[in-house]
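Hi Prof. W.,

I finally got the Beta-1,4-galactosyltransferase prediction working! I wasn't sure whether to trim anything, so I left the full sequence exactly as given:
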Amino acid sequence: PTVRPNLTGTSGISLVSCPDVPPNLRGVLHVEFRTNRTLQDVRNHVGPLLQQGGRYRPTSCRAKQKVAVIVPFRNRFEHLNHWLYYLHPVLMRQQLDYSVYVINQDGDGVFNKAKLMNIGFKEALKEYDYDCFVFSDVDLVPLDDRNLYRCSDHPRHLSIAVDKFDFILPYATLFGGVSALSKQQFLKVNGFSNAFWGWGGEDDDMSQRLSYRGMVISRPDSVTGRYKMIKHRRDSHNDPNPKNVQKLTETHLNMDTDGINSLNYSVREIRKDLLYTFVTVDVEAPA
Ligand code: UD2
Ligand code: MN
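And this is what came out:
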């Protein structure tokens, strides 16, 4: 049986814990981005098992972790459709208790990916008692569902082998792409810096924060950790920012005062789609 009567909890029934290794994983996945997928196509494909807000939890066992999947976003709807199409079935097979939060930067000011991720952390916790936060680029799809979107004893970098980098980790401290931090790990480093405007550096700053707090990065092996990135050009209002390079020399000076404890923003709208929670925010971009 999968349901045990009346052990703990208030509902009268309590589920047994899901197994350590999810039983229905497929391993290597076939992923391709050539077709046009509308949001409605994706809803038809993965919607039936979801609740509003891109929410799911296994019904036959109790998920090991409560995971908020956070996607920093602006104007990449085509990518988002592919991402949702591939990720939802994977996350379901991984037996996670999860929701997807798309954190959408309002307006056309300079993009700030790290700030959007901090906002995702904060907004998600207003809804549910998540214990794990997975941060993902909207253009990265895993090529193997054994790459679990869960947290572990160490901060985890999931996208070790991306096709764009010929499936090789470009440098050992890389933490960009897809990463997973427990609530405790995230708070221990005061979250991400809010000060990285434009492209580049925010992931390296997080990597340094982790190291300054004595944490090491864990990764899947380079076969399990393969990813495909949707091809794209650099977005407008997200140019590489030379100041971000300078900022990386100051991580240790700023990390206690610049982060989740100094985060300012306003929520413009929270919209629940079947496939995701879409949070539009003003990040107070410099004029
Ligand atoms: C790399 C990193 C990425 C990030 C970035 C530097 C990997 C695999 N990826 O990606 O994590 O650290 O360098 O900042 O190492 N976005 C929008 N709209 C925009 C701009 C960005 O939605 O107008 C979001 C989207 O989720 C995107 C992510 O920000 O995937 C990163 O931006 P990118 O894809 O332009 O950066 P890229 O591919 O160089
Ligand atoms: Mn990209």
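The CA atoms of residues 136 and 178 lie 4 Å apart. Does that look reasonable to you?

Thanks,
D.
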